[in-house]
Amino acid sequence: xxxxxxxxxxxxxxxxxxxxxxxxxxxxxxxxxxxxxxxxxxxxxxxxxxxxxxxxxxxxxxxxxxxxxxxxxxxxxxxxxxxxxxxxxxxxxxxxxxxxxxxxxxxxxxxxxxxxxxxxxxxxxxxxxxxxxxxxxxxxxxxxxxxxxxxxxxxxxxxxxxxxxxxxxxxxxxxxxxxxxxxxxxxxxxxxxxxxxxxxxxxxxxxxxxxxxxxxxxxxxxxxxxxxxxxxxxxxxxxxxxxxxxxxxxxxxxxxxxxxxxxxxxxxxxxxxxxxxxxxxxxxxxxxxxxxxxxxxxxxxxxxxxxxxxxxxxxxxxxxxxxxxxxxxxxxxxxxxxxxxxxxxxxxxxxxxxxxxxxxxxxxxxxxxxxxxxxxxxxxxxxxxxxxxxxxxxxxxxxxxxxxxxxxxxxxxxxxxxxxxxxxxxxxxxxxxxxxxxxxxxxxxxxxxxxxxxxxxxxxxxxxxx
Length: 466
What we know:
Family: In the C-terminal section; belongs to the class-I pyridoxal-phosphate-dependent aminotransferase family.
Low-confidence stretches: 1-12, 462-466
Number of strands: 18
Mean pLDDT: 90
InterPro entries: Aminotransferase_I/II_large, HTH_trans_reg/aminotransferase, PyrdxlP-dep_Trfase, PyrdxlP-dep_Trfase_major, Tscrpt_reg_HTH_GntR, WH-like_DNA-bd_sf, WH_DNA-bd_sf
Keywords: Aminotransferase, DNA-binding, Pyridoxal phosphate, Transcription, Transcription regulation, Transferase
Domain HTH gntR-type: 24-92
Organism: Massilia consociata
């Protein structure tokens, strides 16, 4: 991704971005580079920028490209014009010095998608075509027929044609996980999971009095032999798996491993909860585990992780009708239904193609941001090139909690491995989320600041005294 360098052969020095061949529109690369320089202090308020024609000549781009870049930078409150004296860096706004949040796993805002317009049009279509009274009343059946049909359409890339009656529409994946624990387990039961897993699983299991046992995992996910041993030893009620771009390790389980785990689950008669929020973001992922053991696996797909977090809609595939009824009963005990307006908006977007367009934009933006992380973090980067996060192993002189505290003191939020540990131990790593910072320039600045922090050894930590 773009980085800035000082050119010393003119007076005064000017700043030039290095434009990446596959880094997206060049005017945005220039604007992002300017913002990164302001955030990291390379450019300071009052610094003069080169005239547009001079910058265009240096970069070998059209003058229009630079003009659009400067206009975009002004829109971000980065620049101010001073008439004939030229263009200068503006005084920083509050958002340029706020915490750079690399901790929340949210989809990045895609370039070229007018989300405000998409939201307005979607809601307008819903209000024109739906019975408004139905949007403001109770829906107790796990979603309307049209919502479940939209869910079946959404899951077609994973499963092909589905019977929509096997789907339950839920207010997010966390609610689905909690309801499945209530429906399919009893207090004191064991749930198997990998050593690093989604924190919401641990929170729900602990609250409901269930016990999580960690099963050894390798670079392909849960180890089959260890899974079978744990099944025979602990007689678990459930096993929780997140096989595609796993949160937090970003591992995608290969097809053979999925088949092996599915076969063991069938032999040992244990239910698998397959939480698969990132499948549609992955580059050519294997089929879900649910395709290899349809009657053994409950499958969860949420829109919050691949479209926008405010769309609290998840589709849960539960093939067994008795389990489906128990699941619905458990769900109603704490989350009666999806808000009908949210469900109707999700259905509208899926059926009119807007959701697919937004998904493609998120995928493209995520890949671009992974490229940025790969360039900045260099040899430390261990991502898959897609998805929303990077799992970063730390050098021996840092531990994850220490690094997280040090990063916080420098205005960066990251998530240490301890947040994901399902047993008493944890790996020496952090999760870096690439979508929660809206502007690429600020993301670039955060990654650069983090890279510099990783390169130096920790100093003594002391709290301020006031």
